[in-house]
Amino acid sequence: MNVSKSLKRLIYWELGIPIAMLSIGIYHGLMQTIYRSGAIHESKMAGLDYYQGLTLHGVINAVVLTTFFAVAFGHATMAFYLKREPNKANAWISFWLMTVGTVMAAWAMIAGKASVLYTFYPPLKAHPLFYLGAALLIVGSWLPLFDWARMYRAWKREHPTTKTPLAVLGTLVNFIIWFVCTLAVAYEVLVLLLPWAMGWTQTVNVTLARTLFWFFGHALVYFWLLPAYIMFYTMLPKLAGGKLFSDLAGRIALFGFLLLSVPVGVHHQFGDPTITKGVKMFQGFLTYGVAIPSFITAFTIAATLEYAGRRRGARGLLGFFGKLPYLDPKRFLFAYLIAGLFLFIFGGVTGIVNASYQLNNVVHNTAWMPGHFHMTVAGPVFLAIIGMSVYLYSRMSGKKIFLPRINVIVPYLWVIGILIFSTGLSWGGLQGEPRRTNLGLTYLNPEHPLYTPEWVPTTLMAVCGGIIMTVAAVLFFIVFFGTILSKRTAEAVLELPVSEALHDEKRIPLFDSFRPWLVTMAVILVLAYTPALFDASKNPGKGAPRFTPDNPAPIEATTSAKLAPAAVAKQ
């Protein structure tokens, strides 16, 4: 499909900016493992504080990269399947809002004025520009949804009895989830945190802010994942040489995420005493429920891959695994997707552990937690993003992939690194190794009284994995930017792999309409979050003065302690 130069440029920028910033995120990810291994016994390195780097790593990798890519991929998907382009003015306004917001937040983080971690929890306080930047990024990402909805309604009027393309359904589901969940964090940022950061209010309701954040924070995981799911259902079967086992299964899974991805955020607050046990129990049940769409996907994609392998001559129970195109440079996107699927097995299993109230008490705020979510956001999410980014750029620019054999090795090298890295974190977490902590200052400093030698092997394993991941990332950057700098050799078109369905079930109106699912989603949200928000408002505590991440004492208390000797001296 030929698209306008304006849309091409827009997608190029929305892919290129986050990939360029990813280099900063990857660097700080490596530095985190080095700090935690005890190789550095300082709070700063090269002028950047540990928590400053942790914030840059989390925000760039988990928010900026994923949001820009989701918008770019959404534009490509909607244009390709609906055969019409989004409104150019709306799309460019969206881009500039996201870009300006990112620059504002990046300045605050790089200047050391927003070391509040990826979760930007109070009582950690950032510069107002950080919160304004986050708000602009979110609002900018909303605009495409409204235009895509217009495109979808126009297409549906012309094709009333035709099933909505699965990729279009997935894109709209993903951004509806995003819009709903970001309403809460927008309220947190604009109403609670921004006035507090500007000094207009002295304290903030920490429990309410946490609850609003996790209304957004867990649904964010599915905002990350659903572009990968769209690729699994609509592209992976074609790339594998087969057909999607069931079209209906994909629709059921996507609508399942629409219902259950947002109302489960309170399970991140199992350790929060102000949330009552009844609310936590209900949230636990909902969290187990959201695993169902993932199980549907696992079985559907497994059957799809088996069909593809058998079409390619596989025999025996598991012989199909040996017939898949793992190292085919022409189908390199298969390598990125299959590697991500493999990692997601471990991400899903460890996620079920976190959903259990009892088991969560064991691993809460330990290194187990980043071990888990690196299996998801740094597994299928990250690999799908970088694989599709280089694929889209190559096809839309008419340029061949630079170093194609290196490109197809990158995802497998990344898998090796992630498995070593996350195993080290998970093992350390089971031994009580804390997360979000510069272990090199204390627990892994032999000269410190808190030195804990049993964490040496776990952190060394994590840093070894981190080094391998960094090598894989550097190779990807060479491939991506080498492709950008190469010469055009083919026709520049928007082209996506399109999979046929082996079982292309007839159109069922329930699974081809958003209205009943949106109503059900609203009912579940009210049932899940009304009690939680009531608890957060009823038991807020005294409010929170400002803290910094590296000091357990409030800034006001620290300042008072410093001023006290001077006051005595004056007397």
Describe the secondary structure blueprint for this structure.
Blueprint lengths: L4 H33 L6 E2 L2 E2 H33 L5 H23 L17 H31 L7 H32 L8 H12 L1 H16 L1 H5 L3 E3 H14 L16 H13 L1 H21 L20 H24 L1 H7 L4 H30 L6 H27 L25 H30 L15 E3 L11 H24 L16 H16 L1
Parallel strand pairs: 3-4
Antiparallel strand pairs: 1-2
Structural class: mainly alpha
Strand content: under 5%
Gyration radius, in Å = 24 Å
DSSP helix fraction:
55-70%
Number of strands: 4
The description of the largest β-sheet is: 2 strands, antiparallel
Helix count equals 18
How does this structure look, described?
The chain contains 18 helices and four strands. The strands form two sheets. It has a two-stranded antiparallel sheet with strand order 1-2. Helix 2 (50-82) crosses helix 14 and helix 4 (128-158) runs antiparallel to helix 5. The model is unreliable at 566-571 (pLDDT under 50). It is mainly alpha-helical. 68% of the residues lie in helices and 2% in strands. This is B(O/a)3-type cytochrome-c oxidase subunit 1. Residues 1-512 form the Cytochrome oxidase subunit I profile domain. The chain crosses the membrane at residues 12-35, 55-82, 89-109, 129-146, 166-193, 213-236, 248-266, 286-305, 333-353, 373-394, 406-427, 460-485, 516-534.
